[in-house]
Amino acid sequence: MFLxxxxxxxLSRYRxxxxxxxxxxxxxxxxxxxxxxxxxxxxxxxxxxxxxxxxGSSRVLTRDYWAEHERMPLASAIEDPEPVIAAxxxxxxxxxxxxxxxxxxxxxxxxxxxxxxxIDTERDEQVFSFRETxxxxxxxEAGEPGALLGAWLAQDLGLAVGDPLTVTTRTRSGFHQTLDxxxxxxxxxxxxxxxxGTLFMPLDTADALMEMEGAVTEIDLKxxxxxxxxxxxxxxxxxxxxxxxxxxxxxxxxxxxxxxxISATKKGGSNVMLLLxxxxxxxxVSNTMLMTIYERIRELGMMRxxxxxxxxxxxxxxxxxxxxxxIGSVAGVGxxxxxxxxxxxxxxxxxxxxxxxxxxxxxxxxxxxHAAWNPPVIVVALVAGVLACVVVAVxxxxxxxxxxxxxxxxxx
Length: 412
Description:
The protein is α+β, with helices and mostly antiparallel strands. The protein has 2 domains: 2-50 and 259-410, no CATH class; 76-222, no CATH class. Helices cover 53% and strands 18% of the residues. It is built from 14 helices and 12 strands. It has helices at residues 2-13, 15-55, 63-67, 81-90, 151-157, 192-197, 203-209, 229-238, 252-255, 257-294, 297-305, 310-345, 375-401, 405-410, and strands at residues 58-62, 95-107, 110-119, 134-137, 146-150, 164-170, 176-187, 198-202, 218-221, 247-251, 348-349, 368-369. It has a 6-stranded mixed β-barrel with strand order 2-3-8-5-7-6. Helix 1 (2-13) packs across helix 12 (310-345), helix 2 runs antiparallel to helix 10 and helix 10 (257-294) packs parallel to helix 13 (375-401). It is elongated, with a radius of gyration of 31 Å. The two termini are 31 Å apart. The model is unreliable at 354-358 (pLDDT under 50).
């Protein structure tokens, strides 16, 4: 225990230097943990908002429709969805039929493209969570020529509850069709993609106007855990849906492939930024450690002159460096966790000072951004802080030990 005790004594003797160096480590690690938690929270909340409001856990489509799903081809719809829905419910999976098509919303001031989603007003609630997001007016009712608009779309069109709305589109047969609707409600969804350009209407109303004759373009599914979608889909394809060879089931990851690709790119860029923060902290630590060792070369020479072995001297200095790293890492992880806890619990609501209708931050988040816990990163940060200090101390100690004892004692 002599060497650890000596290292601790040196840390106490150079208290100010220890505090300054440990503070640099603490600041770097706290910033790293805080930023990583914030980015992780945005990622987790985006996935949640994708599944709850946009894709469901998975989606059943015809194979022809999936091959051209970006065009939303009504001609490739599911002709008789009820047997499929009954089979899925028999397997314990909530299912909701929908019809998706493109249109042009026309108002007095002009027009803009919209995505129209025709929903079964009762069964859709078993998969998605839109009713609770209605902030003005009411939810849709079956059979009415009503429209439920995203808040940003309503603002862009200058519409309010009770206003008439005309949507031009093409029916399943390819004929031009004009939908005369009334705005019955406006929703403010946590998913900005829904708020920006989506219009909902009752499925039975759209069925008659769009010449669908009972067909739907998709059947959306909800699993207990959306993260197991690929595994569940494999079981469905081999079992429940095997009786419907023209259909395929795709997961939320397949449906949101473009978003996930962009998110992965952003995550890579964010990780680079976090790495730079860590490197800046490491540079500050290395500079302090170098100065610490070079200023004590005479002390090092004296220890060697008194007969202390080089390996023991090296261990003392490395224990000191590890001690500084441990103090700074523990403090940094503690501060980072406190800051992250506040973000997890309350988050930051930036809708109060930004016009969200004109802003897209790239995540499926429209107002409040919460952080999330990322235990592996916290552990890595704690270990990396200690190791960084030890590694930085290795080279100057080795160089100092190469000096002759007389040179060490004459060093100023």
